[in-house]
Specification:
Layout (H helix, E strand, L loop, with lengths): L4 E2 H7 L6 H9 L3 E3 L2 E2 L5 E2 L4 E6 L2 E7 L9 H6 L1 E3 L7 H5 L13 H11 L5
Antiparallel strand pairs: 1-4, 2-3, 2-5, 5-6, 6-7
Helix pairs in contact: 1-2
């Protein structure tokens, strides 16, 4: 068995993307990282590598446990990686993040201070 495989093929085989061309497009767009380095589609992935794939605005962090060249069933695909993805924020947590109205312009000095205070930053 080969000791390395193209990252776009592996992402497609473990069912992160629906098509291999979508996996290649994700690599071209810079949404795929191997061991914290941006990956091109043909970059080899090996057992033990950490692959980060940005899907739908969230990163999936996968550690390669097995190399798969062909797309397999969901149970076999899940056995090929270790998922270290942190849980997504709940809708309630997402509402706690302060948002500015679109078109409100630049924040004033007072607004910036309030934003910093909410984020727990030191005053400037």
């Amino acid at each position: 068995m080969a000791e390395s495989l193209r990252v776009d093929v592996w992402i497609w085989a473990v069912r992160c993307t629906k098509t291999r061309s979508a996996a290649t497009a994700a690599c071209r767009a810079g949404h795929v990282r191997i061991n914290d380095q941006t990956a091109k589609a043909a970059q080899p992935v090996r057992v033990g590598d950490e692959v980060r794939v940005r899907l739908h605005g969230f990163d999936r962090i996968l550690v390669v446990r097995q190399l798969l060249a062909k797309r397999v069933g969901a149970e076999l695909a899940a056995a090929a990686y270790e998922d270290r993805t942190p849980p997504r924020p709940t809708p309630m947590e997402a509402q706690l993040v302060p948002r500015r109205d679109r078109g409100a312009g630049r924040p004033t000095k007072r607004d910036r201070r309030e934003i910093d205070r909410l984020r727990g930053r030191e005053p400037r």
